[in-house]
User: Fold this.
Amino acid sequence: MGKINIRKAAMIGCGFVGSSSAFALMQSGLFSEMVMIDVDRARAEGEAMDISHGLPFARPVRLYAGDYDDIVDAAVIIITAGANQKPDETRLDLIHKNVEIFKTIIPEIAKRRCEGIVLVVSNPVDILTYTAIRLSGFPEHRVIGSGTVLDTARLKYLIGEHLGVDNRSVHAFIIGEHGDSELAAWSNANVSGVRLSDFCEMRGHFLHEESENRIYEKVKNSAYEIIERKQATYYGIAMAVKRICECIIRNEQSILPVSSMMHGIYGMEDVVISMPAVVGKDGVEDVIPISLDEEEQEQLKKSASILMDVNRMLKEQHGV
Assistant:
């Protein structure tokens, strides 16, 4: 990996999501060095101090506020910077503000020729990951988004609750845009290899479509519900960031529905969207063409076309 320090992470953006992610990563013991960067330097310093004061109860990690020169050898560069989603905003409403912010951040990373994996968490994550690929000129497999990793966790959690089983035994994916056009891939969902509908019947649930719709709506609206109640979501995404970093640093080659560039799967081309992918030390190794029924394929194409329209608009308005 050349100049890379495999035990080092950089966190760009120290708001709720950035600081919660740094806290989760500190507890994970994955890294021995973490630099925190924010346009508000005092904020980054405050967060680094606050988290560092708990280190006597954790494992050693050098955690400090820094600047872009400190990220050159980071194995993972996590970007959470951006404007927050307001209660009445969709993730797509955030686009213009956050694309402008990325136009200041990504060139700073690119000109230092960083060789680590860039993990985009800011919303709308699919659009901003596409923007980061375009602006950085880095190989596509090295620039990934947190995608629908958290949405998928929400889906597994809710199915587990519904069926009274450990959610880690539930295998199901939310795919597509991390946003309002995302879809649950129900046709291949299973609980430890048993088709979801069969397992439901085993547990005394027979109204499959009704349950699926209710659970899907709950997943899709989770962020809005949390934002309405506490103004922001950050713990769930922090744990998703930790999970993605584990896959990269340990070269786990686990399958996670991250956002990555598509090249032909289900006809999708030149669009960043969430599909299950093999994630390891090089970022995304392979995108997995999971089987979808016709209706799901249509929904996925619709989701991709929404994102492609936005990409076209950004090219015209922001030159990205």
